[in-house]
Amino acid sequence: xxxxxxxxxxxxxxxxxxxxxxxxxxxxxxxxxxxxxxxxxxxxxxxxxxxxxxxxxxxxxxxxxxxxxxxxxxxxxxxxxxxxxxxxxxxxxxxxxxxxxxxxxxxxxxxxxxxxxxxxxxxxxxxxxxxxxxxxxxxxxxxxxxxxxxxxxxxxxxxxxxxxxxxxxxxxxxxxxxxxxxxxxxxxxxxxxxxxxxxxxxxxxxxxxxxxxxxxxxxxxxxx
Amino acid sequence: xxxxxxxxxxxxxxxxxxxxxxxxxxxxxxxxxxxxxxxxxxxxxxxxxxxxxxxxxxxxxxxxxxxxxxxxxxxxxxxxxxxxxxxxxxxxxxxxxxxxxxxxxxxxxxxxxxxxxxxxxxxxxxxxxxxxxxxxxxxxxxxxxxxxxxxxxxxxxxxxxxxxxxxxxxxxxxxxxxxxxxxxxxxxxxxxxxxxxxxxxxxxxxxxxxxxxxxxxxxxxxxx
Amino acid sequence: xxxxxxxxxxxxxxxxxxxxxxxxxxxxxxxxxxxxxxxxxxxxxxxxxxxxxxxxxxxxxxxxxxxxxxxxxxxxxxxxxxxxxxxxxxxxxxxxxxxxxxxxxxxxxxxxxxxxxxxxxxxxxxxxxxxxxxxxxxxxxxxxxxxxxxxxxxxxxxxxxxxxxxxxxxxxxxxxxxxxxxxxxxxxxxxxxxxxxxxxxxxxxxxxxxxxxxxxxxxxxxxx
Amino acid sequence: xxxxxxxxxxxxxxxxxxxxxxxxxxxxxxxxxxxxxxxxxxxxxxxxxxxxxxxxxxxxxxxxxxxxxxxxxxxxxxxxxxxxxxxxxxxxxxxxxxxxxxxxxxxxxxxxxxxxxxxxxxxxxxxxxxxxxxxxxxxxxxxxxxxxxxxxxxxxxxxxxxxxxxxxxxxxxxxxxxxxxxxxxxxxxxxxxxxxxxxxxxxxxxxxxxxxxxxxxxxxxxxx
Lengths: 224, 224, 224, 224
What we know:
By secondary structure, chain A is mainly alpha-helical. Chain A has one domain (9-222): Heme oxygenase-like (Heme Oxygenase, Chain A, Up-down Bundle), CATH 1.20.910.10. The longest helix of chain A has 28 residues, at 39-66. Chain A is built from 11 helices and no strands. In chain A, α8 (130-151) runs antiparallel to α10 (168-189) and α8 crosses α11 (197-222). The B-D interface holds B 65-66, 68, 126-129, 132, 186-190, 195-198, 201 and D 65-66, 68, 126-129, 132, 187-190, 195-198, 201.
């Protein structure tokens, strides 16, 4: 199948991230696709993912703080708002259904793989600028979109997870984030941004974040 | 008249801010109350206020990035979202009605008083923590609430401005922000936070931001 | 006389800063040159300058935190080290000689002009990247060098101040900082950096910081 | 043997870090003590440690930016200066002696364990304040001191490494950093800081950083 189209920067960055295949075709993902990932491992992943979302939302908040235009601020703010007022409460509900209450969820001890990824993204944003933050956030947002698109219709025990990321709402978000990134690059670095040394630095950010995504799936696969 | 009740930290901080009276009873404010502030000066203020709101929204975004709990993130995110998706577009409309188009508004050259205040707040947040940011933001949010409550019903040429800040929506926001501050202090420093050296540092943040608010009104009064 | 040569970015940025002349030929500077600046005003400036140096040193520390190479870190660290272990203690000595003790100096209430400039620089660094920080720091470092070079040999009551900035040590620092900036631009944006939209944003940083330098001299001229 | 005395906060934090023993008595450390750690693993560790030092220096730079007093700035600046002008060049020399040239050293691909620890420290500093940064830095600075003191005189293949951390210079640094932390806590939170909720948050920072130190040794033990 063809890859989904999330704009112009994404395929350039993906092509320079050696771990992209290892990330998007990780054994954890295949377990979701076939539906045979052990439930305990999925729940371990879900709990860590809640902590992840907290820091991911903080990264989008930082993006709004580092934005240059009202349009960039509005895009980052809308994502933050959706994360803290919809996705995280939804996560709490899903976990509650699985017998994990909100207090226990919030008290989850963050795994090293989770710490590595989330702090890498946030620190990239603090030490660098809006573009560094976007390059570090992109593997998560767009990689989940690519995985979702590939797994669409797989059904099975994890159909709900798959449908979320394969669905129109999430795929639209991916196209919007891709467009936000393309426009942020153009606005700061001009149409030939990919020929600048800065482009290598941003590709490096994306590649490192991709490596850390592999570690996050692996943490899920290894289980609690 | 009695002062509005925005929680416990606010009156402590206000009492240690020598410029509080100069801020909340500034000649610019009195001009709004009496309705005799020259229109050109008001428009000058409005334009600067648009740039101010951009940085103010960035400060609330930073608050979400520096928050410690989901509740703090949700509160900061909701304020950011309201600023960039409601207040700023509304500001654009009001300015358009006055003959200032969006491009001209966004191109406003920031006055030194505007730079001083907004960058002080943002830097307090970056160099300090969530509490430093709250102490630096509070004079603006709560001071406008106090001014609004005092000027309620004054009518005149600036009745629309007055009604906005005197209105229920804004007064509720002030009480919410006051509660957010009180709970953030309690969560980090415990019930006797006001007896710690940290309390002096936060009061100092509030007092400096109050001084810079005086400069902001003065910039409006001085006119374009 | 010809302007001193501090590299390639500096003349480009200076040419786009409308307030450059107002800054480098400010009445305060002319008062230093002629030696007729009132002593009380000079002491007011000295006290504010001590607070300024504290934040200026913090900005160089932030530059080291945001650096990309060991060479950049070493340059920023050496500047920071010189500021906090030599310049600031020297400032304390000079003030002591003038009857201002260290405790009184540290307790100086920061003027709005001081706040505006220092927080603008720090916030540019936090919200942007290493280049934003360099562009915001440059008017101070290099402007003082240009003023020093122009006033060299003026003698008079402020000969000590003039000789400091006209002297070899400071002029060498200016050339080093100019080279650091040129190399940082090349390393990130390539040899045609000045044709990118990013170049406009950096020139804007420099121009705004220059405007705020005018305000700093004016604060000195207005006196205590 | 008795533990070295690095002040008052350190033993409190250590007592609340469940992984402290796993960190300071890690099999990698024991391999250094007995001298039977494979050389290839030690070189792998050395290369990663160079990248680590870069980020560690950036964290001390950030501490200088977030400091509150001249004394705090001077302490942080001196540490940064020593790291980038002495320790890192020394590291380059040691690696060169082992056949790893400077370019190859700088091009080392950062391991996930390295990323996790360094970015955790930096992000703690950016999102929190000076105290958060100190609590996250302390396990590295003081833990190496404790290990060095315990291994003193072990001799063997890694005697040079052991002597560095057991030596007077490093032990004095540990006492200075311990005193800096104690005084920073007192200056901000008062003498009963350990009874505040903030103390739990700081202990948590220390405990998490300690966990990530275990991962760093493990990365060394696992080898290239």
